[in-house]
């Protein structure tokens, strides 16, 4: 009980610093997404540090779990687990070190670029063949 009282009485500075830190990471994520995942729709969190990346403009409609986890080596939550309106999306946590957040977005970006390149080549080869 004493710890709870101390947190309420003396924790304002810590909480303020934490909120500022998390806002900075959210802003970093927005910048990373716009710079590396131009077709991803970024859905900012509503009172949390869990952000939603809508990947449907990359032609992804169903499960995206295998894309980030097996192909990019990053973990997050498949949008299907967040509700039917979130299919084709991926939830990420921005309450992580900036280096991890940067690497996460860069890895997802590389996988999406590689995927688009493969699909483009396969489409051209199918039309040419």
TrEMBL record:
InterPro entries: Class-II_PLP-Dep_Aminotrans, PyrdxlP-dep_Trfase, PyrdxlP-dep_Trfase_small. The keyword Phosphoprotein does not apply. Keywords: Pyridoxal phosphate. This is Cystathionine beta-lyase. Its cofactor is pyridoxal 5'-phosphate. It comes from the Bacteria.
